Amino acid sequence: MSNIPAIQDTESTQTPIANVRDCGKETDMNNHKITILYERLSAEDEKDMESNSIKTQRAMLEDYAERHGFIPYIHATDDGYSGTNWNRPGWQEVMNRVEAGEVSCLLVKDSSRLGRDFLRVGLIRERFQELGVRLIAINDGLDTAKGDDDFTPFRDLISEWYARDTSRKIKSSLEAKGKKGVPMSNRPPYGYRKNPLDRTKWEVDEYAANIVRRIFNMVVEGKTAFEIVKILNAEKIERPSYYMDKMGYFKCAKSLENANPYDWSEQMIDRMLKRREYCGAVVNFKTKTPSFKSRKQVHNPQEEWVIFEEVHERIVPQETWDLVQKLRSTKRRPSVHMEEGANPLTGLLWCSDCGKKLFHHRTRKGKLNRYCCSTYNARNRSFKDDICSLHHISVKAVQEIILEAIKKTASFVRDYEDEFVKMLRENATIKQCETIKSHNKQINKCNRRITELDKLFGSLYEDKVKGVLTEERFIQMSKSYEEEQAEQKAKLELLQNEINDYQQANDNISHFIKLVKRHTHFEELTTPLLNEFVDKVIVHEAVWSDSTPEQHRRGTRTQQIDVYLKYIGHIALPDKRTQSEIEAERIEHEKWLAKNQKANAYRWEYTARKKAEKAQQEAKAI
Fold first, then answer.
1. What is the per-residue pLDDT across 519-554, written as a single tens digit (0 to 9) for each?
2. Beta strands in 4-88 (DSSP E)
3. Burial tier of 376 (Cβ tally within 10 Å: 0-12, 13-18, 19+)
4. What number of other Cβ atoms are within 10 A of residue 437's Cβ?
5. Which of 27, 282, 309, 503 has the greatest number of beta carbons closer than 10 A?
6. What is the CATH number of domain 180-328?
7. What is the pLDDT of residues 57-103, one digit of tens each?
8. What is the pLDDT of residues 268-301, one digit of tens each?
9. 555's torsion region: left (phi>0), alpha (psi -120 to 50) or beta?
10. What is the DSSP string of 295-316?
């Protein structure tokens, strides 16, 4: 329902005051004050009866005011507002005028038009009496100028009971719809609109849906909510409330009056990224109201939510939504020294010993840019020696390792797809498709036997009641049936888990192959490539070949890095290189190793020489 303007002057349609006086009717002696005719209609009142319509109320009040000389008068109207809502614009205007001393009399059809709250209505009557405002409820026969009505409090209480009962009926109706998967929210999320043929269903609004997809993709690309807001504002993209109000999907208070229609905020982006509705789901019972008198929304815990999957068309793929939730669960520190912001590797690197995340260290000029165990840092702060070691690795090195792992796996999938599928299936409990058929037959057999045992136990109990079986025999046989039934259920669970394991393995293989085929270039480790392919990276402590207790970090440093890819985890691919390729790589590695050893020897010799020179200078100074 549309809201009728709160206050409307009708002085031009009044019967002249002189004529009323000539007829001997009662007139308003406070000529400098006015009479307000107040009408209110809620959706429930409109369904209840036609006599409550705004038009009927206006006609009744005008007729009474003119016959009894309450002139001049104006109208205050609230169309579509419940009596439990005290933020009605018309009622707010009435109270403002009453407090300003401009009102001599308030006319209503009945007391329930004031509101349906026993305590609040009573306080309003008290306030009217203090300010000398006359209150008349025509149908209730109430006129405060003629004295108190002893039945008035009971009438107000009955009015509140009516509101409580109506609220209970509406709540029951909404709960029934919500449990059937009908969206309880009257406003579809940004990206959807109500289907004009069926208002209980949503359809995709392509323009807004493209904005939603772009926002999710920007998160995958490594952008923060603040960066996304800057992009949307710079490109003059209308914020959700303004756009949906402009399109007529719903009315949002003062949305179109806002001077900046492109005023996105980080809170909007955060709320949007959390919504499961973009994956085709309907989420009901997310909020509740504490009482029928309150308009405040209280959030329910997630355990009380009722979620229905695949109700409407998806805007965001489930894989993308899951990835965004994982990325947002990791806090990233934007650097105050480096322009590129937070490193996308944060949240992916884990320590092999303590199982904690690695912490990113960097300096102003980029001389230090590496990851270290976060527990090791905690040890430095708390001076504990039994927590963890450094586990450090440079950002450049780990990027090269991850890119090489992705390139090697993707190349193997393209060249040897069948062998790749066979190799991954070897990790599943069931390795052959024929085994699935055998498992399904056994599952059906177990279900039949469990049903038979239930029937046998029932008949056994009947025989005991009839006296056919003794108590001792009944206990012995029922125990035997229960043990067999427990064995059948355990076997059934094992078979079903093996089938699920096989199906999950097939799904993971299919997802990874599609992911590889969707990407064509693997020359650079971009943020989207990293987020889509890598699940986690396990970093082990480095080992030095010639290290001794007296001289640490001597010789060649080697470090094991385990890259776990999405859907397939950490796998060892067979080596498909020819003998000549292996030999060429071995020679190249030996050259690099010799060069590296030479550099390390020079570095240690230089360090030792500098220490000796420093010692000599100190000796001379002494």
1. 877 888 888 889 889 999 999 988 877 666 556 666
2. 7-9, 34-41, 73-79
3. buried
4. 10
5. 282
6. 3.90.1750.20
7. 898 899 899 888 888 899 999 988 888 888 889 999 999 999 999 99
8. 999 999 999 999 998 888 887 777 666 677 888 8
9. left
10. ---EEPPGGG-EEESSSS--SS
Q: Where are the alpha helices (DSSP H) in 561-578?
A: none
- Computed on alpha carbons and rounded to an integer, the radius of gyration of the chain in Å comes to 39
Per the listing, tokens 């190249």 go with 588
Domain ranges of the chain: 7-170, 180-328, 392-576, 578-622
Handedness of CA 510, 498, 446, 454 (dihedral sign): negative
In this structure, are residues 269 and 229 in contact, taking their beta carbons and an 8 Å threshold? yes
Q: CA-CA distance, 126 to 108, in Å (whole number)? A: 17
Helices 318-328 and 266-274, packing angle to 10 deg: 130
How far, in Å, CA of 394 to CA of 377, rounded? 16
- pLDDT, tens digit (0-9, with 9 covering 90-100), for 565-607: 988 888 888 888 788 878 888 888 888 878 877 887 787 788 8
Name every residue whose Cβ is closer than 8 Å to that of residue 329 and which is 6 or more positions away in sequence: 347
Q: CA 202, CA 193: separation in Å to the nearest integer?
A: 5
Between 3.30.559.30, 3.40.50.1390, 3.90.1150.30, 3.30.420.10, what CATH number should domain 7-170 receive?
Answer: 3.40.50.1390
- CA max distance for the chain: 126
**Collapsed DSSP state (helix, strand, coil) of residue 98:** helix
pLDDT of amino acid 259: 67
Helical pair 318-328 and 206-220, crossing angle rounded to 10 deg: 50
* Nearest CA-CA partner of 273 in 330, 233, 231, 214: 214
Residue reference for tokens 């009217």:
128
pLDDT for 190 equals 93
Rounded Cα distance between 443 and 430, Å, is 15
Q: Which is more confidently placed, 237 or 436? A: 237
Q: How far apart are CA 39 and CA 42, in angstroms?
A: 10
The structure tokens listed for 298 are 């209280």
- Higher model confidence: residue 155 or residue 531? 531
- Round to the nearest angstrom and report the end-to-end CA distance of the chain: 96
pLDDT above 80 (res 232): yes
Structure tokens given for 190: 């940004």
Residue 191 — very low, low, confident or very high, per pLDDT cuts 50/70/90?
A: very high
**pLDDT score for 478:** 83
Q: Would you place residue 438 in the very low, low, confident or very high pLDDT band (cuts 50, 70, 90)?
A: confident
C-alpha 575 chain-centroid distance: 45
User: Hey, what are 194's tokens?
Assistant: 């109500």
Calculate the CA 211 to chain-centre distance.
Answer: 18
